[in-house]
Automatic annotation (TrEMBL):
Ranges for domain Mur ligase central: 127-328
Residue numbers of N6-carboxylysine PTMs: 238
GO cellular component: cytoplasm
Post-translational modification: Carboxylation is probably crucial for Mg(2+) binding and, consequently, for the gamma-phosphate positioning of ATP.
Annotated positions binding UDP-N-acetyl-alpha-D-muramoyl-L-alanyl-D-glutamate: 44, 46, 171-172, 198, 206
Protein name from the UniProt record: UDP-N-acetylmuramyl-tripeptide synthetase
UniProt keywords, alphabetically: ATP-binding, Cell cycle, Cell division, Cell shape, Cell wall biogenesis/degradation, Cytoplasm, Ligase, Magnesium, Nucleotide-binding, Peptidoglycan synthesis
Chief location category: cytoplasm
Stored Pfam families: Mur_ligase (PF01225), Mur_ligase_C (PF02875), Mur_ligase_M (PF08245)
Species assigned in the record: Leifsonia tongyongensis
Compartments where located: Cytoplasm
Amino acid sequence: MTGSAPSALRPEHPVARPLAQLVAEFGLESRGDLDGVEVTGVALSSAAVEPGDLYVGVPGRNAHGARFAAAAAESGAVAVLTDEEGAAIAADSGLPVIVTQDARAALGAVAAWIYRTDENAATLFGVTGTNGKTSVVYLLNAILGQLGVVSGLSSTAERRIGSTAISSKLTTPEASELHALLARMREEAVRAVAIEVSAQALTRHRVDGIVFDVVGFTNLSHDHLDDYAAMDDYFAAKLELFQPDRARRGVVTVDSDWGRTLVERSRIPVTTLSSSAGGDAEWTMTVVDESVDHTEFVLEGPDGRHLQTRVPLLGWYMAANAALAIVMLVESGYDLGAIAQALDRDGGIDAFIPGRAERISGETGPVVFIDYGHSPDAFLSTLGALRKVTDGKIVMVFGADGDRDTTKRTDMGAIAARGSDAVVITDFHPRYEDPAAIRAALLEGARHAVPDLELYEVPDPRAAFRKALSLAGEGDVVLYAGPGHEDYQEVAGERIPYSAREDARLALREAGWL
Ligand SMILES: CC(=O)N[C@H]1[C@@H](OP(=O)(O)OP(=O)(O)OC[C@H]2O[C@@H](n3ccc(=O)[nH]c3=O)[C@H](O)[C@@H]2O)O[C@H](CO)[C@@H](O)[C@@H]1O[C@H](C)C(=O)N[C@@H](C)C(=O)N[C@H](CCC(=O)O)C(=O)O
Ligand SMILES: Nc1ncnc2c1ncn2[C@@H]1O[C@H](COP(=O)(O)OP(=O)(O)OP(=O)(O)O)[C@@H](O)[C@H]1O
């Protein structure tokens, strides 16, 4: 992280608005005296409250947020917005209470009103899909920078404005944080923002109050079946982004059947992109050269428009992500020729994506990648890409999330086994699950798929990485999938400091390879 490191990115010069006006404009019910009460911000967590905030109390898994109204008042909140149940709970907080049927559903529009985010808004890009969201957001940000456009981003890894960044807790922030971020970006003269939009964000009203100029879809594959009953429900959540109340135009990657279904069911104008020849799309991306360090591709569109460039990243899928970013820019009004010129000048897209097939190794020894892949399809893409660019052995290290979609573990094990020459199963974020049981499911998937696989179980991730390194030599590849950019391991409710990237560098130094 560079620049200052604030804990939240909120406007530095918020303009106060009368709370009574909010109540009148939204037709809300209020209890207590609103006379002279002015609001400058909004927070969904008492810990995030700043003086002048409206505190929004929503029911959660563990508690009703209204229980924290008194704590919010101590931090300077001027009122509470909550539902009927919350209003009763917050009654003795000493704050005026504004009542609505569903405070989470109201939050987006309320936050947009408080921060006036629809005034002089930047061009907004939204990216969704199971895999590739973070990558496309970084690629958009990189190309915009190369075009000389001041841009910002919101991703799983970080929220960033220029050189100021904060790390992210959620893929998509809660609406209160997102509108504050947009207001801060406006203060910093940001003209384009790339935002990662998770399915959960759509289901939980996190991008309410925003109409994206262009939205992009990467792909859909098995994930999050703890949050959604079936793939159809998961898809339906993503489909919401491609509706007129959320976006003006869309770009859809149609490499999968889900992409084609999205085109059929979307109610906004959409442009299609394919990364397979004869893919029947308006735009086609074709890889023309690839190595462990870069992927070069040609992008061809309607009316003979075309561009050839490269990404300093591994794999056809990163070229597909880059192509999606470029077509999204074109759909928002940027000229393809101007994009091509800027990229030619710089020798390609100048992107660094933290923890996405990030190469940690130096010039000697095995090539080591730390990746954020934690779904079967992500494993398939990365291992497929690696096999194409290496003649050596592929050693893969990974674990699986505890308390998250358990149904993907067998497939993760099987895909890793089929795509690697040796596999080391370790612990990822066990959370409240028994880590041995998580490993057992992965081991079972791997063993069943390739019975004679060279397979190891090493619970401690530091030891697991060193085991993998010991199995590899010059010309081989070690892929450590899961931790990506993260700097912690979550065990039984605690976040224990652990950065796979830093530890891998240390291990490479210990081995004399760095
Ligand atoms: C499981 C889940 O969805 N949890 C979300 C939920 O928390 P919760 O229901 O556990 O909240 P709670 O502890 O009961 O507290 C209720 C309310 O009181 C507030 N509170 C609580 C304690 C306190 O001291 N003060 C206080 O104000 C909380 O902020 C909350 O608003 O409400 C919180 C804010 O209101 C969310 O931040 C939190 O997201 C958690 C962190 C989460 O992990 N969500 C996952 C499912 C998620 O959204 N994931 C996607 C992943 C996408 C991808 O992988 O592609 C994402 O977009 O990140
Ligand atoms: N277009 C793609 N198709 C398939 N796999 C991909 C694609 N892009 C990235 N991946 C794989 O998925 C992993 C996660 O990539 P990325 O972080 O960009 O996705 P994401 O959608 O943001 O995921 P998350 O929501 O979990 O942060 C990568 O490390 C890589 O293994």
